[in-house]
Amino acid sequence: MNCPECDAVLKIPNDAVEGEIISCSDCGSEFEISKNDEGHIEVKRAENVGEDWGE
Amino acid sequence: MSDVCIVFDRIRKEEKLLKSEGIRMGHNIIMKDVKNIQIDPNSVNQYYFGNVAIGRCISYLRGLHFTACLEFLHMPIINKYDVMNVCGNKLLTTLFLKKYNISTPKTYFAFSHDSAISNIEKIGYPLVIKPIIGSWGRGIALLKDKDSAEAILEIREINNGPFDRLYYFQEFIKRPPRDIRVIMVGERILAAMYRKSSDNFKTNIACGALPIVCDITKDIEEICMKISMSMKNSILGIDIMEDEKDGLVVHEINSTVEFSGLMQVTKTNIPREIIQFALDFARK
């Protein structure tokens, strides 16, 4: 599974559980682990964008 | 070879491009994640941020305060605190533009909910409300009538953040469905693009707008030069609208400019120019 931010390979620990936050080791982006309808692990972007983020 | 430090809190395409280009130029690129840095103002000699630091924090307030620390430590960093302070705050940007007689949309401020309602009724619709701090078009809304105005202001009341009771209203500019983004280093324009909106009045690339080549006209050059002369030695992203009535009007100046969209439509090597400009700035 690749990081949507920088395309690095995301390392998801074997014991990771749904709802756990993981970070991309390359860019530091944070993702929340979730499961899709088939029960497969996937990641979604964590809600961490700040009000003051941007240019 | 020089040491160029890129201070960041999240790696975007831009930070990667700056790093790779800096290495190609033969410099030593130091990547510093601000989230991991501790500053002790009593020990000023323990820090090193290269011959020059380029401020690239995605969080405006984090970057602003970190820049203040580096300036205290006499470390050269670009952009400077004073420039960031103005550019990151739309209210201060408007005051800056007015002070230097640079064309900008008519803008109004209020400092409480009731005063904001009263102000809107006085000015009339349509109006655009913008958060004074923030980017990527977030929180910007078109107020078409009293109902939409009250709804948006009510959300501000509920959110109750420190900036929610600072109200910034701007006239709705009649223009083509695009704006112009110009990137400058010092008094030199690097490149410009149109940002053509897809299906709403916002023209941010983050909102889906498309980058299109834009020729730099004399009018664009003139208005940008006025800004760069007043914000000396800065790396800026200037946003301009083409008002059907008043011609070019500046509505935003960005101090941590995102340039990957512009890179799609220009041959200018923007990261190379930024690094070279930063090094020249540090040597002054």
Structure notes:
The complex is a heterodimer of chains A (55) and B (284). Chain A has strands at residues 21-23, 30-35, 41-45. Chain A is mainly beta and 55 residues long. Chain A has a domain at 1-29. Chain A starts with 20 loop residues before the first strand and ends in a 10-residue tail after the last strand. The relative contact order of chain A is 0.24. The mean pLDDT of chain A is 82. With 284 residues, chain B is of the alpha+beta class. Chain B folds into 3 domains: 3-85, Rossmann fold; 107-171, ATP-grasp fold, A domain (Dna Ligase, domain 1, 2-Layer Sandwich), CATH 3.30.1490; 174-283, D-amino Acid Aminotransferase, Chain A, domain 1 (2-Layer Sandwich), CATH 3.30.470. In chain B, 35% of the residues lie in helices and 25% in strands. Chain B has helices spanning 13-24, 60-72, 81-87, 90-99, 113-123, 146-159, 218-230, 260-263, 270-283; strands at residues 3-8, 28-33, 52-55, 77-78, 107-110, 127-130, 141-143, 167-171, 178-185, 188-196, 210-213, 235-243, 247-254. Chain B is globular. Chains A and B meet through loops of A and helix 2 of B.
Per-chain topology:
The complex is a heterodimer of chains A (55) and B (284).
Chain A: E1 21-23, E2 30-35, E3 41-45
Antiparallel strand pairs in A: 1-2, 2-3
Chain B: E1 3-8, H1 13-24, E2 28-33, E3 52-55, H2 60-72, E4 77-78, H3 81-87, H4 90-99, E5 107-110, H5 113-123, E6 127-130, E7 141-143, H6 146-159, E8 167-171, E9 178-185, E10 188-196, E11 210-213, H7 218-230, E12 235-243, E13 247-254, H8 260-263, H9 270-283
Helix pairs in contact in B: 1-9, 5-6
